[in-house]
Amino acid sequence: MTDRPARDAGKTAKSQRTRAAILQAAQELFATQGYERTTVRDVAARAAIDPAMVMRYFGSKEGLFARATAFDLQLPDLTKVARPRIGETLVGHFVEIWEGPRSNGSLISLLRAAASSDDAANAIRTIFGGQVVPMLARVAPPDELFQRAGLVATQIMGLAVSRYILKVPPVVAMDRAQLVTLLGPTMQRFVVGKL
Amino acid sequence: MTDRPARDAGKTAKSQRTRAAILQAAQELFATQGYERTTVRDVAARAAIDPAMVMRYFGSKEGLFARATAFDLQLPDLTKVARPRIGETLVGHFVEIWEGPRSNGSLISLLRAAASSDDAANAIRTIFGGQVVPMLARVAPPDELFQRAGLVATQIMGLAVSRYILKVPPVVAMDRAQLVTLLGPTMQRFVVGKL
DNA sequence: TGCATATGTCAACATTCGTTGACTTATTCG
DNA sequence: CGAATAAGTCAACGAATGTTGACATATGCA
Q: B173 lies in a domain?
């Protein structure tokens, strides 16, 4: 016998494609409808596969959600950014993550889910603690680091909520350059300015 | 026959009490769990009444939600506030609404629900258009009114999301006075400052 | 008191959901 | 080729949900 211990693991190229299709459908639906309103059947229909395949590949709806919302912010090294432009850089980077070509709806999915799930909220806190705080630690005053990180969170999350979830008209109407110009100074103050 | 056209309308004092109990239970649950995860049975259990009573008094779960999230921001008249303190006043007012003694979880309920419901998101947009914009119109430059209202939205909603939904630790740790001090200047700039 | 109306209880409904297991088809490899 | 394994299909399950209607009880008025 061949020593293949694993059964039903996605090995072939074809399976990778359907797996990716499920993942993409899930990301789109989670991002636009949140966790509860997104059903396994909806995901399967959009991916044009059988609902049972979702279970085969991801174990459960929660497993699928965990995979669909795993991502890396790829935050910049702020020590390599001209100090007066840190605020603008940060705002631009987040908007790029949300709207840029490589964007999937991951962060927005998580944010939507966090509204009714402590697990999702905890995932966002982990991202902040593990990615945003370390980034700020390189340029912000150490004794105010967490406070400043919290302030950054309020502005960044507020932008995301207003623009992508609540869809507040004037916020939706702003283009990326405007967002950088208008929110950059606030961000600058939160990171390295006088509080 | 008596010409009473309506049947089963809450007329007696006793019914008003149970009606209020249902409403309070609903507000608490909607605020902490969001719309989807809050079941009619949960509300009934917390109010110590029968699930059928919820339907009798509010028609449907959606009807209950609509009643539980109807509220008035009671925003201040900014023309009576010293101009340099407008920002601090606004931040303090919102925190008071959210945490003060007369607070019910209405706004937070709506915010949670908006994550997965376009109707709820639209309700928040209506509140902004009907209450926040008119308030700002009395002190903000008219040609930038909507843009400034949008910026105010990003900061206020961001604070609410970070503090009450995501529960970002440093944001939760700040007391009201700190919030006013830290976010006041940003608010000030968004309302009457140089953009 | 006695009738009418409001208030509350109970059980059941139809539907939808996540999940499972048996089955069939396609693919790989000796 | 032909056996073994992966990929995909199908029908059904048990549980939970919003909602309904029949029924029982309490209350107010003539």
A: yes
Q: Does residue A187 belong to any structural domain of this protein? A: yes
Same domain, B33 and B86: no
User: Do A133 and A40 share a structural domain?
Assistant: no
How many folded domains does chain B comprise? 2
Residue A158 phi/psi, 5-degree rounding, is: -65, -40
What is the spatial distance, in angstroms and rounded to an integer, between the CA atom of A41 and the C1' atom of C15? Answer: 15
A102-155 per-position pLDDT tens digit:
777 778 989 999 998 888 899 899 999 999 999 999 999 999 999 999 999 999
Q: What is the DSSP string of A67-118?
A: HHT--------GGGS-GGGHHHHHHHHHHHHHHSTT--SHHHHHHHHHTT-H
**Shortest alpha-carbon distance between residue A179 and chain B (Å):** 9
User: Are B31 and B50 part of one and the same domain?
Assistant: yes
Which of these, B60, B67, B72, B80, lies nearest to B20 by C-alpha position? B67
* First CA to last CA distance, chain B: 69
Provide, as residue numbers in chain A, all residues whose Cβ is less than 8 Å from the Cβ of B111. 115, 161
Query: Among all strands, which nt has the closest C1' to B41 (CA)?
Result: D17
- Summarize pLDDT for A81-97 with one digit per residue, the tens: 999 999 999 999 999 99
CA distance B178 to chain A (A): 10
Among the partner residues B115, B153, B159, nearest to A112 by beta-carbon distance: B115
Q: Do A128 and A51 belong together in one domain?
A: no
- Range(s) of the domain holding residue B58: 13-68
Q: Give the closest nucleotide to A58 (alpha carbon vs C1').
A: C19
Q: Are residues B90 and B126 in the same domain?
A: yes
- List the structure tokens of A20: 């990716």
Number of H helices, E strands in chain B: 11, 0
Check whether residue A148 and residue A59 sit in a common domain: no
Give the distance from residue B140's alpha carbon to the nearest chain A alpha carbon, in angstroms.
Answer: 15
Q: Which residue is nearest to nucleotide D30 (CA to C1')?
A: B2
Q: Tell me, in Å, how far CA of A53 is from C1' of D7?
A: 9
Protein-contacted positions of strand C (CB under 7 Å): 4-11, 16-22, 27-28
Mean pLDDT by 10 residues, chain B (195 residues): 40 78 94 93 96 95 92 92 98 94 82 89 93 97 97 98 97 98 98 96
Query: Do residue B53 and residue B92 come from a single domain?
Result: no
